[in-house]
What does this fold into?
Amino acid sequence: MNKVNLAEKLALISDHWNPRVVGELNGQHVKIVKFKGEFVWHDHADEDEMFLVVKGRFRMEFRDHAVDLKAGEFLIVPRGVEHRPVAAEEVEVLLFEPAGILHTGTVDSALTRREYEWI
Amino acid sequence: MNKVNLAEKLALISDHWNPRVVGELNGQHVKIVKFKGEFVWHDHADEDEMFLVVKGRFRMEFRDHAVDLKAGEFLIVPRGVEHRPVAAEEVEVLLFEPAGILHTGTVDSALTRREYEWI
It folds into this structure.
């Protein structure tokens, strides 16, 4: 049982759109990720997904609106809702979501990761 | 689907040891709480519990050691492990745990809350 320092773990990450696992509880994963640029449109049929901004800002786009998020703010995207994160500048994000989720949902993209590394 | 600003929500709380719900996903609750002083020793038989410090610092005591946590750090306390948060000064904490958990576990304390208010 060790504490996790988010800034220290985030400093280990230099790539984008590649979530790493930093904790697990009750079948859920805590992940950290850096976004920059545009992700792919996707949804998750069976999983809600939480995005908490640690540093920076990004926009979560939906098909009919968008939500701007900055450090200290979070958004929960309900299952089944199409979304696409877009970050003009690099942003550091904490994710809470069920273990086993695929971050691109059913969309098979060049960005799709099928395994998530612990960091 | 609205974003949550943690500082704005925390500014609404003036009491201690009284978690409020700010989000729900996949059967889990996201809560915020302010600690000050010593909580009661307790455990949760079936739930892991995550503590992420938003502002300030506190010590998580276990029967055989303790972990000091400051802003930007989190700790996951596994189910069945007795623990007691202690905060010399007021600290703001984000909790991630299954909906329906009792924050004092099976310990019936003057601090026990049986319902958690959304804020």
User: Anything to note?
Assistant: The radius of gyration of chain A is 13 Å. The first strand of chain A starts at residue 4 and ends at 5. Strands of chain A lie at 4-5, 20-25, 28-38, 49-55, 57-61, 66-70, 73-77, 84-98.
